[in-house]
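Run Hydrolase through structure prediction, thanks.
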Amino acid sequence: MTSTEEGMAQPQGNSFWVDLLGTEVRYRQASSYRTRSIEAGAGEPVVLLHGVSGHAETWVRNVAVLGRDFRVHAIDMLGHGFTDKPQIEYSIRALAEHVLGFLDEIGASRAHLVGQSLGGWVAAFLAVHHPERVASLVSVTGAGLQLDADGATLTENVGRQVAEATTKALDTPTREKVRTRLEWLVHDPSVVTDELVETRYRIYASPDFAATAGDMVAAFTSRARPEELLTAERLATINCPTLVLWTRQNPTMPWPVGEAASRIIPDATFRLMEDAGHWPQFEKPAEFHAVVGGFVRSVTAGRQGGRTDGDGGPTDPATNRQRAAR
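Sure, done. The structure for Hydrolase is below.
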C-alpha cells in the first residue's frame, strides 16, 4: 500500500486541525503582496487555487494527503482570505500575475496548477498565456468557459447565479447567510461544518474584505472581461497535460460544457464525479485524491498519454468520456 493509499484510508476529521495535521501556514511576499498559504510535503510544486470569495480552506481536506507526493501550496489568491486586498481593478490577469509572483517567491520555474471554479479560470489563463510556467493543469468545475456564440447566454446566466448567491452572503454577512452560500456549493449540505461556516464568516465580516468584495465578485461574474474568457480558440492553444474534472451535480456550469472543453484542449482527459457539487475536493476527498493525485503523478513520471499507476485515477480520454455519458 502506498502512502497515498494509506492517507485515503484514514477518516476525515471534523476539525480543520485534524485535516491539517503536518501542514504549515506561511505568509510570503508575492508580487509585493503579503500572501497566505497552507503548505505541506516535498517534491514538485502543486499550487491549489480556490473559487470566487473563497480562501485556502477550500483545500483543507486535500493539502496533507496530496503533500505525501508533492510540495503543495494552497494559497489565498489576491483580494481573498488573509492575503492583501489592494484597491485595484480586479481581473483574471491581476490574479494570474499574483500567482506568477507566488511561483517566483517559492523558486518554482513552473508548477502543477489545480484550480477550482475561479481558480480553474486563473489556472487555464496561465496555461494559455504563460505555458512555460505550467507543468500541468487541473480544472475542477472551472469558471470562465465560453466555447461558442450560444455559450455567451449560458455564461451570463451562470455568472448572474454566482453573483447573486455570493452577494446575498456578503451583504451584511451573518453565519446563516454564509452557511446558505456554502451549502449551495455542495450536493450534500451535511458536509458543511460549523467550523467552515465560522471561518468564512470571519473573512466575510472583516472590514478589508468588505471594502473590495463587491467590486471583485462583479469583476469575475457580471463584469467579466471578454478578452479573459476561455474561448475555444484560447483553449486549443493549451499544450500542457490537462485534466478537466467535473461533477454531475455542479450548480454552476453543467458538466457537458466541461466535457466539451476537454475535447478542445489537445490530449486533455475528462473525468466526471457523481454525487458531488461545486466542491468535489471537499465532498469526496478520497476520490478526488485518487483522480487528481494519480493524474499529477502520471505527469511527473513522464507518462502523458493519460494512464496512471493504477490507483483509481484517469485511464484515457475516451474511457472517461464514455463513463461521463452514462
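The first helix runs from residue 3 to 9.
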